[in-house]
């Protein structure tokens, strides 16, 4: 299976209040995902709080994950950062530590032009042989890729995939068809925004870049497998049953919910990096209720 296919599970990166990565915690989470047969692990994505970690700490996280999975599960490592030369160094680091692929968002303070983003990606792709996925995430980067830019990037050697954001519900199928029919179709096309996962999977997207998969890999994998075998009824059942979790994702952001869920499951005791605050006790209880509903889904299947 291609690297950017199937379920790509995105875990948190446990770290202390000073941004020092908990290597044992990273190993525990990535072992959990690998043991549950996710197709890849998206390390240091937005859920993995890559922008809050220094270069040495990112290296430590990748090293720990590589040690934990032992080559059994491909690792896609986030290398987004402000400067092009720093992103190039992060790409080199990831390769040295044993990553299988790269994921890069156009992180910026001064808003980037389309040409600046093109040259940024091209420069990073030129210093690595690892396949690179474009991280299209305008809600956090405040940069929107035009289709012309994505088409240009599709011709850059080593750029192999694009991670698309959630589009309006009901519009995913049309958007995916248009992308496939254009020059962008040279790339593997996956989606994030877990609440539109059912629609994207049924429309035939290449991959689901999933926050849910980072803490409930069995459930996320079951949804992907149902889509693979064409069982639309099962996919829609999962989607409906997961509404309480999706509502929490949209209300608080999936990052805060992921931390709460992972803590409640006993997989970690880490907190999100400040200034991001954990959910209140009341809302943590709501996450617990959603987790119980997820457990019921798994037992019914």
TrEMBL record:
Q: Which SUPFAM superfamilies match?
A: Aldolase
Superkingdom of the organism of origin? Bacteria
Alphabetically sorted, this entry's keywords are:
Lyase
GO molecular function per UniProt? 4-hydroxy-tetrahydrodipicolinate synthase activity
Active site at: 135 (proton donor/acceptor), 163 (schiff-base intermediate with substrate)
Q: Which residues bind pyruvate?
A: 47
- What InterPro entries does the record point to? Aldolase_TIM (IPR013785), DapA-like (IPR002220)
Q: Which family does it belong to?
A: Belongs to the DapA family.
Name of the protein in its database record: Dihydrodipicolinate synthase
UniProt organism field: Acetobacter cibinongensis
